[in-house]
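Subject: Sanity check before I submit

Could someone independently write out the structure tokens for this chain? I want to compare against mine line by line before I put it in a report. The sequence has 135 residues.
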Amino acid sequence: MSIIFKYLKRYPLSLLTLGAIVYLSLFKPSDDVSLSLFAHMDKLAHFVMYAGLSTVIWFEFFRSHSGIKSIKAFIAMFLIPALFSGLMEYLQSELTTYRAGDAMDLLFNVLGIIFANIVCVTLLSYLFGKYTDKK
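---
Independent answer below. Compare away.
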């Protein structure tokens, strides 16, 4: 149980962001409201949602750790959002009749994650003054 509280304390914004993505991925939009301003806007939304998730996770990581000590952090910061993204696409196809899991959505999710990882490691490590160790 203490490990749960450890993550709640270190990553509260990340967990809230995950909750928001679950809601946005599974809610049924009203039929009379158009959420698309231009063609393929949903792909941009997927990119931004998952880039935002990765950014929040990196921000909280740098806030609560003394720096990047190993390659495991990089792997976790990619795999956790990417696996979550795949799970959301699967749940959309299995739990809803009004949404579908889409490989292109998954691709744009992963592109957002990759983009955020590159930007965050560069920018946040500079802002927090915590550079990567070569161990």
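---
OP: Matches mine. For the report I'm noting this point. The radius of gyration is 16 Å.
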